[in-house]
Amino acid sequence: MLNMIFFRPRRISLVLRLIATVALAACAGHAAAMGNQPAQKPARVNGHAQPEAEAMLIKTFAEIRNNRLDVALTEVEKVLQGYPNFRLAHLIKGDLLLARTRPITTLGNTNHVPQERLEELRDEARVRLARYQFERPADRVPKYLLQLHPDQKHAIIVDTRQSTLYVFENHDGVPQYVADYYVSLGKNGVGKLKEGDKKTPLGVYHVTDNLPRAKLSDFYGSGAFPINYPNEWDRRQGRDGYGIWLHGSPSDTYSRPPRASDGCVALTNQDLEAIGKNMRIGVTPVIIADGIDWVKPEALDSLRQDLLKSVESWRHDWESLDTGTYLKHYAPGFSSGSQNLAAWSQQKLNVNAAKSWIKVRVERISVFLYPGRDNLAVITFDQDYASSNLSNRMKKRQYWINENGAWRILYEGAA
What we know:
The protein is 33% helix and 27% strand. The protein is α+β, with helices and mostly antiparallel strands and 415 residues long. It folds into 3 domains: 125 residues, no CATH class; 155 residues, L,D-transpeptidase catalytic domain-like (Beta Barrel); 118 residues, Nuclear Transport Factor 2, Chain: A. The strands form 5 sheets. A 7-stranded mixed sheet has the order 2-17-18-19-20-15-16. A 5-stranded mixed sheet has the order 5-4-3-13-7, with no helix packed on it. Strand 4 and strand 5 form a beta hairpin. Helix 2 runs antiparallel to helix 3.
């Protein structure tokens, strides 16, 4: 192992200039892209619950920045000892070795790797540096997490602008940050519209299955967690496609470039195994957003109460058998399956006319604001329905839209 290497001053300055350029470009580009995000601060040693490989790689960059290139080489070799398939680390080591003999002008001074592959690795370096330098506000949460029900122990938030997956834990109804991970997304970006467009969808989803390594090809690594794309809102918008998963990486690859999947969210195998411990089929929410709006938890109180009061009013009016008042909770654009509001209303009028009493209990309510739509919320709950001639229990999902200052139901169906 090369523990001590001496560099000429001129070449040291070129290496430092390279790293500074990469870091500054990452910060400037991502700060502009993230829009309404908290300000970024210089890289920190602590403050991120990072995977080991990423933490060691960032330490390598820090040693380069501090003009300790011999130590930087030692650090990157440590990365490769533990993660021999980390291609970006190989590239950085090559640059450090090459700087002993000649000046380097860019990240990845080699003719032995296709230019397209080099650009992907440079993108990964920029994204990883920007991720590390982003100051996650410790006193704030993503505004989408209005309410987790008690059985939802964790929530997943994917920030596509930062190529970052966040894990939050439910502490007595208040989400608390656990960790964050680098992820790879669709080759053609985000905002999936149709099958084969190689884009990652944006929206509120839930885990629908747990596929172990034994049932998959090596391409998906240590496993996969499918999500329910297209959801009800996607279908309403005419979006189609299928097979959007959170999954791992091939055995010969530690991590993939920021834009390398066919629309899925891809992690390293180690990271997938870490988050997999917290995934529950049909329970764990996965919210994919084009940038996260961070707010203080108490800032969500008013919106959450408005939505919960709307649900309670809907429940009460359903029990009252005043079907006209009950139907006022539905938006003009309502649909459920093939039924529009007119068909739904007629069915409810006919059904309720045959009943002498109705009792409805609503429990285990979760409430999520839809990313990119401050006037759209996804509410899921357990419904216990009893009447004079029918009883049933079901898990129900509703989409509520705020139009002209009032929340009304845009979609309703089984979850």
